[in-house]
Structure formats: C-alpha cells, structure tokens
Backbone:
C-alpha cells in the first residue's frame, strides 16, 4: 500500500503527529535512501511511533533553479508507492515555497518539525543540510532536537559492497550513459517513467506498430534511444514491450517523448496513466531513409527486446 501523501504541516490532526521520520529529498528512493528510512523504522519500533518520511515538493533545486534541465527520478505518486513498500505510513511533502526557502534552520526545526509535525525522532543522511543557505547540519539538528524534544540519528555514507556509489547523482550518471543495469542496482529496481498516454501523430499505426505516447515532464532525460520495457497498465497488467525515448530523428519532435509499443495489447489507452520500466538500453536513436527501413528496424528492435526481457528478472 502506498504511503499517504500529506502536503500541509500546520494544524495537523493528532494521528499525523508524533512520528519517527526520515528527513531528506529522497528522489529515487534508492538504496542509500532506504538505509536512512531503515534507521527511522528502527526508531519508530523502539519508541512505538508511526513511521513517516518528510520531503519537499517541488524539489528545492527546482525552486532555486526554475530553468534547470529536467532532473527528477520519480513522481510523488511513485515515491509514495516505493515508501509504502518500505513500511512508511505517511509521506509529508512540505510545500517548498518562498516561506520555506526563507526559513533559517532553527526556525525550520522549531516551527515545522517540532510544532507542526511534532516529530519524536529524525533520521538523516551524513550529508543532510537544511534551512536558508543550507546552514543546518545533522549535528545542528541533533542539538536543536535536544531542546525541542526529539532525537536524531545520522546514517553514514554507504556504498555497495562492490564499490557502487549509492546516490541520486550516480543514478543520473548511469541513466545518462544508458547503463540501466547500474541504475537498477543503485535504485533497487528498474528506473520507470509514469505518465498519462497522449495522442501522437499516429505514424506508428500506419506501419502496424501502434505506440502509447507519454510526455517526460520533469523526468531527467535518459540516453536517447530504444529500450526493452515492462509497462504496468491502469488495470494492473504488466506488459512487455519496446520503446523509443527521444526526438525521433526522422521527424524531429520539439520535446522528447516516450513511445512504447506494447506487445500483444489491443485497445485504446488514451488518458490512462501507465508506468514503464526501462529495463535495458538496446541502441541509440537512428534516422532511416524511409518507412520500410524503419519498420524493419523496429521488428529487429522488438526481437532484441523480447530476448533482453526473457533474461531480465521480474519485480
């Protein structure tokens, strides 16, 4: 069950106060994040408190750099589902607005964490910073907690036993390189894009390859090219497929698009929300001399995708 999303921090009902929380951005909910959440879970069990995560929406980076390139690894709904799988009951998505951006770290601890959320424990990563100018640190939070009535634990940096760096930046580096296996190893699951299926130009239908088209929004742009995919439909079915993510060199789209050919699926998906895992990168985008050449390559891509998916573990 997905964690409950709460977007306010003032005047909360009693059942939403008094939690042990993991505090941070948690974009991707990767294995490093999971360690911080695990520490909060231990505290929750020890003191008999509910388990919650405190994060921000929009991401502070988007607030301070509104023109920055898209960079998100997941939507709020995806985060809530990933956290629910970890036993988190509530996801507090604090509105990151002008008021929040201007708060000193002392004021944030006092007004938001203590008075607003009434937390009993906060678990943070070793590099956690908070407050205007990022002046707050884990040690500062610990000192404030002693005065305000909550305890604090800090999780040291952890890496995979094989030396794999567990961070959101490392995920983005892997995705940019088309290394989906490395991204999945850091995340603990395949990277997935969720969105509403929109109408496209329907060129795929003319060659017998109808696609479900999903805008990328604020998702980071992975390596442009063709991917083996698994897609969860609105009715819960999980369907194998092959997708192009990019600008389609033959027609040069204005904005990158995810176009998924779902194997063995008929029917109208327009307006439905689907989630597509990019399981394996097959090749970069290419241009073709005509539709016949394009269709032949798509058939080859589909065969390559089926082969890759046959050897890929299912979640």
Residues:
């Amino acid at each position: 069950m997905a964690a409950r999303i709460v977007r306010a921090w003032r005047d909360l009902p009693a059942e939403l106060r008094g939690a042990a929380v993991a505090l941070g951005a948690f974009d991707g909910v990767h294995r490093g994040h999971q360690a911080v959440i695990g520490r909060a879970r231990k505290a929750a069990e020890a003191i008999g408190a509910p388990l919650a995560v405190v994060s921000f929406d929009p991401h502070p980076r988007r607030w301070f750099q509104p023109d920055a390139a898209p960079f998100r690894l997941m939507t709020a709904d995806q985060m809530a589902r990933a956290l629910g799988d970890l036993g988190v009951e509530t996801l507090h998505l604090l509105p990151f607005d002008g008021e929040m951006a201007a708060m000193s770290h002392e004021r944030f601890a006092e007004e938001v964490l203590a008075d607003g959320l009434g937390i009993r424990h906060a678990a943070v990563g070793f590099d956690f910073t908070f407050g205007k100018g990022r002046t707050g640190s884990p040690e500062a939070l610990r000192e404030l907690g002693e005065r305000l009535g909550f305890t604090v634990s800090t999780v040291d940096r952890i890496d995979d036993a094989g030396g794999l760096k567990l961070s959101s930046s490392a995920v983005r580096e892997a995705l940019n390189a088309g290394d989906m296996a490395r991204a999945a190893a850091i995340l603990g699951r395949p990277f997935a894009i969720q969105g509403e299926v929109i109408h496209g130009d329907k060129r795929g239908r003319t060659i017998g390859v109808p696609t479900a088209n999903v805008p990328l929004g604020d998702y980071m742009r992975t390596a442009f090219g063709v991917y083996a995919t698994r897609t969860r439909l609105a009715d819960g079915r999980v369907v194998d497929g092959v997708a192009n993510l990019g600008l389609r060199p033959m027609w040069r789209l204005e904005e990158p698009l995810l176009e998924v050919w779902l194997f063995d699926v008929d029917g109208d998906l327009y307006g439905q929300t689907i989630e597509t895992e990019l399981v394996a990168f097959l090749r970069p985008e290419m241009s073709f001399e005509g539709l016949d050449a394009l269709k032949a390559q798509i058939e080859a891509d589909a065969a390559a995708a089926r082969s890759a998916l046959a050897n890929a573990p299912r979640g």
Notes: Residues 196 and 273 are 4 Å apart (CA to CA). The mean pLDDT is 93. The longest strand covers residues 273-284. Residues 291-310 form the longest helix (20 residues).
